[in-house]
Design a protein that fits this description.
This protein folds into two domains: about 1-60, no CATH class; about 65-98. Helix 1 (about 5-20) crosses helix 2 and helix 2 (about 25-40) crosses helix 3 (about 40-60). About 85% of the residues lie in helices and about 0% in strands. The chain is mostly helical. The protein is built from four helices and no strands.
Length: about 100
Protein backbone atom coordinates (compact mmCIF):
# COMPACT_ATOMS: atom_id res chain seq x y z
CA UNK A 1 0.00 0.00 0.00
CA UNK A 2 1.34 3.44 -0.93
CA UNK A 3 2.05 5.98 1.84
CA UNK A 4 -0.71 8.33 0.64
CA UNK A 5 -3.18 5.42 0.55
CA UNK A 6 -2.26 4.51 4.15
CA UNK A 7 -2.89 8.10 5.14
CA UNK A 8 -6.36 8.02 3.54
CA UNK A 9 -7.16 4.75 5.32
CA UNK A 10 -6.00 6.19 8.65
CA UNK A 11 -8.21 9.22 8.08
CA UNK A 12 -11.15 6.94 7.35
CA UNK A 13 -10.61 4.89 10.48
CA UNK A 14 -10.98 8.02 12.57
CA UNK A 15 -14.48 8.53 11.11
CA UNK A 16 -15.55 4.91 10.72
CA UNK A 17 -17.24 4.56 14.09
CA UNK A 18 -19.28 7.71 13.44
CA UNK A 19 -20.12 6.32 9.99
CA UNK A 20 -21.39 3.01 11.42
CA UNK A 21 -23.41 4.91 14.04
CA UNK A 22 -24.93 7.17 11.36
CA UNK A 23 -23.37 10.30 12.86
CA UNK A 24 -21.77 11.78 9.72
CA UNK A 25 -23.05 14.48 7.44
CA UNK A 26 -24.31 13.35 4.04
CA UNK A 27 -21.10 14.60 2.43
CA UNK A 28 -18.86 12.81 4.95
CA UNK A 29 -20.91 9.63 4.54
CA UNK A 30 -20.50 9.73 0.74
CA UNK A 31 -16.74 10.21 1.13
CA UNK A 32 -16.47 7.23 3.47
CA UNK A 33 -18.67 5.08 1.22
CA UNK A 34 -16.54 5.93 -1.82
CA UNK A 35 -13.38 4.94 0.06
CA UNK A 36 -14.94 1.69 1.26
CA UNK A 37 -15.98 0.88 -2.32
CA UNK A 38 -12.36 1.30 -3.48
CA UNK A 39 -10.60 -0.30 -0.49
CA UNK A 40 -11.49 -3.93 0.32
CA UNK A 41 -9.38 -3.87 3.49
CA UNK A 42 -11.29 -0.92 4.96
CA UNK A 43 -14.60 -2.40 3.79
CA UNK A 44 -13.82 -5.61 5.68
CA UNK A 45 -12.92 -3.59 8.75
CA UNK A 46 -16.16 -1.60 8.47
CA UNK A 47 -18.19 -4.80 8.12
CA UNK A 48 -16.48 -6.21 11.21
CA UNK A 49 -17.20 -3.03 13.15
CA UNK A 50 -20.87 -3.16 12.09
CA UNK A 51 -21.13 -6.76 13.34
CA UNK A 52 -19.44 -5.83 16.62
CA UNK A 53 -21.76 -2.87 17.19
CA UNK A 54 -24.80 -5.03 16.36
CA UNK A 55 -23.64 -7.75 18.77
CA UNK A 56 -23.21 -5.15 21.53
CA UNK A 57 -26.71 -3.78 20.91
CA UNK A 58 -28.19 -7.26 21.02
CA UNK A 59 -26.31 -8.17 24.20
CA UNK A 60 -27.54 -4.98 25.84
CA UNK A 61 -31.16 -5.99 25.27
CA UNK A 62 -30.83 -9.30 27.09
CA UNK A 63 -32.09 -9.46 30.66
CA UNK A 64 -29.94 -10.93 33.34
CA UNK A 65 -31.29 -14.02 35.07
CA UNK A 66 -33.43 -13.10 38.07
CA UNK A 67 -31.00 -14.58 40.60
CA UNK A 68 -28.14 -12.52 39.16
CA UNK A 69 -30.27 -9.37 39.24
CA UNK A 70 -31.28 -10.06 42.84
CA UNK A 71 -27.65 -10.55 43.93
CA UNK A 72 -26.57 -7.40 42.11
CA UNK A 73 -29.37 -5.36 43.68
CA UNK A 74 -28.54 -6.71 47.14
CA UNK A 75 -24.86 -5.85 46.66
CA UNK A 76 -25.69 -2.34 45.47
CA UNK A 77 -27.93 -1.82 48.50
CA UNK A 78 -25.16 -3.07 50.80
CA UNK A 79 -22.64 -0.70 49.23
CA UNK A 80 -25.02 2.24 49.50
CA UNK A 81 -25.74 1.38 53.14
CA UNK A 82 -22.00 1.18 53.87
CA UNK A 83 -21.42 4.52 52.18
CA UNK A 84 -24.19 6.06 54.25
CA UNK A 85 -22.73 4.55 57.43
CA UNK A 86 -19.31 6.04 56.65
CA UNK A 87 -20.87 9.43 55.92
CA UNK A 88 -22.79 9.31 59.21
CA UNK A 89 -19.56 8.58 61.10
CA UNK A 90 -17.80 11.47 59.35
CA UNK A 91 -20.64 13.84 60.19
CA UNK A 92 -20.50 12.82 63.86
CA UNK A 93 -16.75 13.48 63.83
CA UNK A 94 -17.22 16.79 62.07
CA UNK A 95 -15.41 15.74 58.89
CA UNK A 96 -16.88 15.52 55.42
CA UNK A 97 -15.88 13.80 52.23
CA UNK A 98 -15.47 15.38 48.83
Amino acid sequence: MKPDARSRCRGLLERLSRYVDGDLTARERRTVMAHLHRCPCCEQFAASLRRTVQACHEAGRRRLPSDVRARAQARIQALLAEKQRVEDIRLKRGTTSC
